[in-house]
Design brief:
- Helices cover 55% and strands 17% of the residues.
- The chain contains 4 helices and 5 strands, in the order αβββββααα.
- It has a 5-stranded antiparallel β-sheet with strand order 1-2-3-4-5.
- The radius of gyration is 41 Å and the shape is rod-shaped.
Length: 185
């Protein structure tokens, strides 16, 4: 029986405390990964804080660069702990990318359904137009009522004036203007 038959997937641990800390950070459920240029340089964040950045190069053998607080650490050769760290970053980024694609598709679907709902039917337009016409009619009616009340008061005032009405015409017009500009009734 080969060793692969009893294979159990274990979390890889590192002898290097810095790499172990990076592994702990990437395994945190709150951690998320960005690859701004899709070039395999993964930046790991928790909240808005960037914890580290990892890059794998194949120029002369395998080389990993880890940036922590703007300081670059270089590791050469085949290292299972760094391979696991890079694999976890790649996996989290791929999961996030799928989630983003699904969110974009969901957004487009809701946008299309919103267009369907936003179509205004002709009956609604006629109802809104009717309400606006009724509001305009009410405003005009109130203005006509005020004008009618003012005219009645002016006629009553004219009756109280002496016979030589023409002399007091200016007083009447002044009274009419003051009633028209008065607030309320």
């Amino acid at each position: 029986m080969a060793d692969n038959d009893n294979f159990e997937e274990k979390e890889i641990q590192s002898d290097d405390p810095m790499i172990q800390k990076c592994l702990d950070i990437i395994r945190d459920k709150r951690a998320w990964v960005e690859d701004l240029c899709d070039n395999g340089i993964y930046s790991v964040y928790i909240g808005r804080k960037k914890y580290f950045q990892i890059q794998r190069c194949y120029n002369s053998g395998t080389k990993y660069n880890i940036d922590i607080n703007y300081q670059t650490y270089k590791f050469y050769g085949s290292r299972p702990d760094l391979e696991e760290l890079y694999r976890l970053c790649n996996s989290k980024y791929a999961d996030k990318s799928k989630e983003r694609q699904q969110n974009a598709l969901d957004f487009l679907r809701t946008k299309e359904s919103t267009k369907e709902r936003c179509r205004i039917k002709p009956g609604v337009l006629f109802m809104i137009a009717g309400i606006l016409v009724m509001a305009a009619a009410i405003v005009k009616y109130q203005k006509d009522q005020k004008t009618q009340r003012v005219e009645e008061k002016v006629k009553a005032y004219e009756k109280t004036l002496p016979a030589d009405y023409l002399e007091y015409k200016q007083a009447v017009e002044h009274y009419r203007d003051s009633l028209m500009h008065a607030k309320g009734r």
